Task: inverse folding
């Protein structure tokens, strides 16, 4: 079965976000009243699995092994079956 | 008034996504049956505006001026008022 997982990866609170800080500074430089920017990432992963349960297990494993840094990132994901 | 905008930026269809391709290759290298990965970005922007309408106008402008590359990116955003 084919699945599509949408994985949202964001920095845990307390971790500084250099890209977000640079973006906020650039927006203020353009004249916008911006007090902060946080940047996170979304991975859309197309995968094969035997069942939805297996797909969930595999995606959680991918997150821990490759897609996130468990020390500083939080993640969540949604999975849907593809036609 | 204070608002928080969540801006989703993704590559338009047809544009190659080197980071996604590298990620897919790395996942296959780890043994996963992955046929493709697309990576997109989410900006959470805290801003001041006179009204929700002004906040929407400002965020759309930020997207076109700084947060996206209109040639190759699609974007959408949600805005909510903050306490």
Result:
């Amino acid at each position: 079965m084919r699945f599509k997982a949408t994985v949202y990866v964001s920095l845990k609170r307390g971790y500084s976000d250099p890209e977000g800080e640079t973006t906020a500074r650039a927006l203020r430089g353009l004249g916008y009243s911006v007090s902060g920017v946080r940047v996170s990432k979304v991975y859309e992963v197309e995968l094969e699995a035997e069942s939805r349960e297996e797909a969930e297990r595999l995606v959680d494993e991918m997150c821990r092994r490759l897609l996130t840094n468990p020390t500083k990132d939080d993640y969540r994901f949604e999975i849907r079956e593809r036609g």
